[in-house]
Amino acid sequence: MDTHVILLSNGAYYEQNEKIEGLDDKIIICGLQEAKTKHSELFNKYYNKHAGESNDGLVNLNSMFAVDGLFIYIPKNTRMEKTIQLVNLTHGFGNKNIFKRNLVVLEENAELNMVICDHTLNNSNNFVIDVTESFVGKNANLRYHALQNEPNKSGVINSHFQRLEEHANASTLALSLHGGIIRNNFFVQLAGRFSEVNLLGLNLTDKEQRVDNFSIIDHMVPDCNSNELFKGILDDKGRGAFAGRIIVRPDAQRTLAYQSNKNLCLTPEAKMRTKPQLEIYADDVKCSHGATVGQLDESALFYLMQRGINKKEARLMLMFAFANDVLLKINIEPLRKRISGLINSRLRGEFSNCSHCLLNCNS
Description:
The protein is of the alpha/beta class and about 375 residues long. It has 2 domains: about 290 residues, no CATH class; about 30 residues, no CATH class. Helix content is about 15%, strand content about 45%. It contains 6 helices and 19 strands. The strands form 2 sheets. A 10-stranded mixed beta sheet has the order 2-1-5-7-9-11-13-15-17-19, with helices on one face. It has a 9-stranded mixed beta sheet with strand order 3-4-6-8-10-12-14-16-18. Helix 5 packs antiparallel against helix 6. The longest helix is centred in the last third of the chain and has 17 residues. The radius of gyration is 20 Å and the shape is globular. The protein starts with a strand and ends in a 16-residue tail after the last helix. The C terminus is likely disordered.
């Protein structure tokens, strides 16, 4: 992928990040502390406006202790040609508590593609609390992809707050490839008519890893769409949970909302808990939700083995086909190919390096 690479070092904007050349003069990409002093008017207009409404104690803890992160501002009628790749790097000796805060603002008719890569350079018992706020203006388009690759001892709480205005479109992917304990929280406000959000998630767990996904999509106004698809593949003693909640307010007529959570448990010890929820207070809506937890289809496995494919390879093919529903919804082709390769390596137990990352560090 041809990207602009930005590094956060232990939650702080890296001082030696190369300046991005050729950008529109009005585009702002800098550290959060720098934005607070040099672009105070924009900072005060958007910072903590959505996250500040949360009663989540860990989000409030982040608001107290986060000192830096990434600030991106895309002005009206501006499109970022290249994808922004943010590398969140945790390193150093000893156990750490790290607080990161990101703020992304897209004005009217703006467009931005982002890829976020989480990495740790050692096996320390780190605990990361990460909060991102993104504001998607009228007719703007945000594609946000988070790739999580953390060691077994790590703990990550990641909360993403999104607000969409009229005709805005946002697509968010959370890909949990590896980690100790990971929790992804998504809070989406559809605040403008004809806005649409696509929320995707895929988690792969084994050993004693755990990944939880929690979402609230709030349909505040009429004529909005939301599509939510989360899948999980759990092996060994892997654990997972999903709690998705869609709220359709009384005035949010003609809402279209879809929610699905599907999971594969490959061993009797793997556990998945799922709780899809709908709260509908309007009468002219089309909404659906559902969840499944099951095993690989033995008849499909037998079918493949009858055609000369060994059992291990047949299992891998079925697992990859299960995950492919999420991959097909990634509309950036180079990114889709890279993620496809990473998932294939992860399922085969070969995930010792992230070949897509410029750092090429050990996981």
